[in-house]
Amino acid sequence: MAISMTQAAADRVRSFLQNRGKGIGLRVGVKTTGCSGLAYVLEFVDTLNDDDQVFEHDDLKLIVDGKSLVYIDGTQLDFVKEGLNEGFQFNNPNVNGECGCGESFTV
Amino acid sequence: MALLQIAEPGQSAAPHQHKLAAGIDLGTTNSLVATVRSGEAKTLVNRQGRDMVPSVVRYTPDGVIVGDAALAAAIDDAQNTIVSVKRLMGKGYSETTALKQQVPYQLVDQQGLVAIDTAQGVKNPVEVSAEILATLANTASETLGGELNGVVITVPAYFDDAQRQATKDAAKLAGLNVLRLLNEPTAAALAYGLDSGQEGVIAVYDLGGGTFDISILRLRRGVFEVLATGGDSALGGDDFDHAIVSHLQQQTGQAKLSHQQMRQYLTTARQLKEQLTERDSVDFALPLNDCVYNGSLSRAELEQLISPLVKQTIRACRQVLRDAGLTAEEIVKVVMVGGSTRVPLVRQQVAAFFATEPLTSIDPDKVVAIGAAIQANVLVGNKAEGDTLLLDVIPLSLGLETMGGLVEKIIPRNTVIPVARAQEFTTFKDGQTAMALHVVQGERELVDDCRSLARFELRGIPPMPAGGAHIRVTFQVDADGLLSVTAQEKSTGVQANIQVKPSYGLTDEQVASMLKGSMQYARQDMQQRLLREQQVEAERVLEAVSQALKADAALLSSAELDNIQQALTALRQVRQGDDTAAIKAAIEHTNQLTDDFAARRMDQSIRHALKGHNVDEV
Question: Which positions are tagged coiled coil (chain B) (predicted)?
C-alpha cells in the first residue's frame, strides 16, 4: 500500500510547510460526505494519530489514516494549474464515479 | 476535477462548502486583491499577469473599462476617465471645491453628494469604486475557482463613518459580502504578524504614489488601537518623479515640455529612481532637438533632489508622535508601506528618526492586501477557533436607561467586538403595554451624564401586573462597530429594534474626557445611583399599595387603613427629598404595615381560586 506525489506537488507542499513555519507533514485522506459519497481531505499535520500511516517522499511526510488508505491506495497527488486557478489534484485509481464537480467520488 | 488547497488541521471543508475569502486594498492610485491558499497569503494576478490594478475607471459610450486600459486613456479621454476616486468617497459636493481644480473630470452635485458627469451619465464615487472592486473580485473568483464568500476591504485609518459607509456601499453594489473594513496600517501590521508579537506602540509609514500617511497603533492583548494619524494627502512618490524631471529639464535645457516629452521624461525619471535603489549611478538618454542627450544621475544627486520631500514626511512623523503624546523611543516596530519606501534615503531617514530598523521584508506595495487577506481568511472561518484575531474594542460602555434616569450597562467598555449581550427587563406598572427604550453610551451612572444614542419603543406588550412581563433586550455590536438593539416580549414574541453607530461623531478627546469624568465622579455617581434606586423603589411600593387598597380596602379595619394611608403620605414626602436612608426607612415601615394586608389578600385570592373545586382537582 502506498501514496505518492509528483515533483510539482512535492515542491509546493515543501514551500507551503516552510511558509507555515510548523507542521510535520501533509495529511491526505477521505471523509464520508458530499453528493457522491466521499470527499478528499488535504490538511497540514501538527500531531500524529495512532492509526496514521506515514509515507516518505524525499524529505516530506505524507500521512494517511488507516481507514482512508483503502479508498486512496495507489493515489498520486499532483499540483496543476488551470487558467488562473491552481491547486492539488488526486489521481486515484480506485475511483469509480465522480460527481459533476469532481469534489466527491465513489469507489 | 476541482483543485484542492491544503487546510489547517481539522478545517477541511465539505465539498461545495469551501469558504473563499479575499483581502482587497482599494487604493487611491492602485488596488490589489490577495488571498490565503494552503496557508500562504499572496496577491493574485489577473489575466494580464498583473497584481497591481490602477484604480482608474473609464466610461465610454459602449461600456466600462477598469485598470491599465483605462489608465492608458487618462490623458486622451480625461473627461470620462476617473482617477483617484478614493478622494471623493463619502464627500459632500460642497466639500470638494478644492478638488474641482485638480481633477480633469466634471464634478456635479447629486443631492448634496459629489458625483461625476461621464459619457454614461452621472456616476457617483460609490458606483466608480464598485467597478474597481468588481474587477478585483472577478480575478479572485477566477483564481479560486468559485464565488467569494466574503472580503475584507482596507480603508485609511482617518476615514470617517461616511467614507467607511461609502466603501461598504460600493462593495455591496459590486455584489460582495464585506466581512469587515480594516484600517490600512492595521492590515500592514497583521501582514507582519505583529498581532501575535510583542505588545507596544507601532508606527506605520505609508508613502504611496500620491499620498503619505503615518499612523501610530498600540497593540495590547491582540487588539490594535489607532492612537493618532497624520500625513499629507498631496505628497508621494509622484513628487519624487517630478523633482527628478525638473532636474533633467535643467540638464537638457528644455524649459517647456510637450505632453509627449513630459511622458518621456517621467518614464525616464521613474526608471532612474527605481534603478538607483540598487546602483550608485545610472546613465540615461533623452531625445533633444533631433539628437540624443546622454547623461547620468548618481544616487547622491537623487537624494539631494528628494531630500526636502523626505524631510517633509519626517516632520509629519514628529507631529503625529506629538499628537499621540509619545516619543520616538517608545515605538517598538516601524512598518513600511507603499512603493516609495523602497527608496534607500526614505528607509535611512525613517530608521534614523525612530531609531529602529523598519520592517521591509514584505513587498511594500502588497503588504496591506496581504494583511487584509490574512484577516479575511480568519473571519470567514478557515482557521481554528483559538486563532481568531481580536481587533477592535468598544471604547465606551453601552447601556439602557432604567427607571429613575439610571443607566444599566449592557456591554461594558473594552469588550472585544463583534459581541452580543442580552438582559431581561420588566414592566413597572400594572397593565403597561408599551416600553420606551433609551440607548446610551458612557461610563457614568446617570443618563444625564451619558451620551444619548437612540430611543425607540416596544409596543404591544400584553397587559400584565407590574413585573409580570419578560422583556429581553439584546445589544449586538458587529465587527464594524454598528450597534443594533432588539427588545422582545417573551410571551407574545412582539419585538422592536433599532440600529445605531455608537462611535459616530465622537473624537478621541471626547472619549477620553468621558472616561475621566466617570472616574472623577465615581463616588458622587454611586450616591446618586443609591438615591435614585430608593426613589424608584418608593415609587413602586406606592403604586403597588395604592392598587391593592383600591381593590381590597374592605379587608382592612378603619384603624389599619388609617395607619397605611399615613405611612404612604410620609413615604410620598421623603421620596421627594434626597435622603437615601430616610426613604429606605419609610419604605421598610410601609412594608411592615402592609405585610398582614398582603397575607389577607393572598388568602382571599386562594379562596377565590379554590371555590367550587374539590380537593382532588387541586
Answer: none
- Whole-number average pLDDT of chain B: 86
Q: Which class does domain B512-610 fall in?
A: mainly alpha
- The shortest C-alpha distance from B113 to chain A (Å) reads 39
What does the CA dihedral B416, B326, B207, B130 come to, rounded to 10 degrees? 30
B383 tagged catalytic: no
**pLDDT above 70 coverage of chain A, percent:** 87
Question: Can you read off the three cell numbers belonging to residue B483?
Answer: 450597534
Contact state of A101 with B16 under an 8 Å Cβ cutoff: yes
Nearest to A43 by CA among B530, B115, B5, B352: B5
Q: Is A89 on the interface with B (CB under 8 A)?
A: yes
Q: Which of A20, A34, A40 faces B4 most closely, judged by CB atoms? A: A40
Asked whether the beta carbons of residue A44 and residue B39 sit closer than 8 angstroms, the reply is: yes
Domain B21-236+305-393, CATH homologous superfamily name and number: ATPase, nucleotide binding domain (3.30.420.40)
User: Do the Cβ atoms of B298 and B280 come closer than 8 Å?
Assistant: yes
Superfamily of domain B237-304: ATPase, substrate binding domain, subdomain 4 (3.90.640.10)
> Which range is most confident: A13-22, B335-344, B524-533?
B335-344
B386 has a pLDDT exceeding 90? no
In chain B, what are the domain boundaries? 21-236+305-393, 237-304, 396-506, 512-610
Catalytic residue among B127, B169, B206, B480: B206
| Contact call for B45 and A84, based on CB within 8 A | yes
DSSP of B531-592:
HHHHHHHHHHHHHHHHHHHHHHGGGS-HHHHHHHHHHHHHHHHHHHS--HHHHHHHHHHHHH
Contact B55, B29 (CB under 8 A): yes
Give the domains, in start order, of chain A with CATH numbers.
4-95 (2.60.300.12)
Contact B362, B296 (CB under 8 A): no
Q: Which fold has domain B396-506?
A: Substrate Binding Domain Of DNAk; Chain A, domain 1 (2.60.34)
Q: What is the pTM of this model?
A: 0.66
Q: So what's the pLDDT on residue B392?
A: 61
Catalytic one among B51, B77, B169, B184?
A: B184
Question: In which residue are the cell numbers 436612608 written?
Answer: B581
Residues of B with CB under 8 A from a CB of A: 1-12, 14-16, 37-40, 44-47, 139, 142-145
* Interatomic CA distance for residues B330 and B332, integer angstroms: 6
Q: How far apart are CA A7 and CA B145, in angstroms?
A: 23
